[in-house]
Amino acid sequence: MKKTAVVPVLLAGAALLLSACGAAPDATSDGSDGNTTDTAGGDFLACMISDAGGFNDKSFNQSGYEGLQRAGSELGVKTSQAESKDASDFGPNLEAMQAQNCSLTITVGYILAEDTKAAAEANPQSHYAIIDDDSINADNVKPLVFKTSDASYLAGYLAAGYTKSGIVATYGGLQLPAVTIFMDGFADGVAAYNKDNNTTVKVLGWDKAAQNGSFAGGFDDQSVGKNTTQNFIDQGADVIMPVAGPVGLGTLAAVKDAGGDAVVIWVDADGYVTNPQYSDIILTSVMKGIGEAVFDTIKEASQGSFSSDLYIGTLANEGVGLAPYHDFDSKIPAELKAKIEQLKSDIIDGTLKVESPSDPKQS
After folding, report:
1. Rounded Cα–Cα distance for residues 294 and 75 (Å)
2. What structural domains does the chain harbor?
3. Helix (H) or strand (E) holding 250
4. 125-162: per-residue pLDDT in tens?
5. CB–CB of 110/76 below 8 Å?
6. H or E segment at 105?
7. pLDDT > 90: what percent of the chain?
8. How do beta strands 212-213 and 206-207 pair?
């Protein structure tokens, strides 16, 4: 049975890193066409494969890629990356990385789990890590997962306290555990606010009890995100949380175009930093310290200490959390901000337990 590894993930540092790093690489379908970088010599080759969102998704692929780039610049390891256009690229990209003799191959996203497992089984001498999946139980695969239900609970409480219309909304890209865990926490946070304040804030897009709601059918069609968001706005929603990677850019565009009071809660990265053109409509972000987890995993492996122990990012180890309120800081009542800080402390010390069917396994 694997033990939970606690690796500090400094979200504030990750946010600064996002603003300091260069652009993501051009899209490629395999890792063998000039994407290898030898930053400072050395024999360790750290590799990464994106899902279909690509490394410029302003979200979790980009965060992972920036962790890879940081490892290259700070640790002096070689790096290589491959962007996937769709699921058909996953297997070939993994084969391309194996052909490059990658010392560690990191796959970004739950939907790469099946191909990652197959590659790990076929190459037991090679090391792998996968973000947002803990289904692979193998000595050569390290899962990097995040208890985002806790941070999303805080975001839901904030949304319920901030809304002027009494209606908030969320939707996902696909109905996957790494997506619905956000939506569960968000819905529970709204419910908690209603209970504490005798209010009736309504959540559109997700029914936690039924595990049913609105999904875009993927992570790349921004027009679906825009249409979904406009539908929410038409129903009165003024706080919207897309959990859909690049599809969420459609939400930002729809809210911007609509004007009015609607705002967005971004996910994975600090949207205020990654989407500066929309900074005036981003209330906060539910952040995952993916870049830091990637960096730490590469560092350990490059020092000969690769471990398949499960890493879970939590509020306690700063692997998840809310981004600063930035431009909205003065618009959020002090008592609401204080309450959210108290809820965060209660979750960390165990006084308050947030649960989702999609929470990471604790073993």
Report:
1. 13
2. 4-147+290-313 (3.40.50.2300), 148-287+320-349 (3.40.50.2300)
3. helix 248-258
4. 999 999 999 999 999 999 999 999 999 999 999 999 99
5. no
6. strand 104-108
7. 81
8. antiparallel
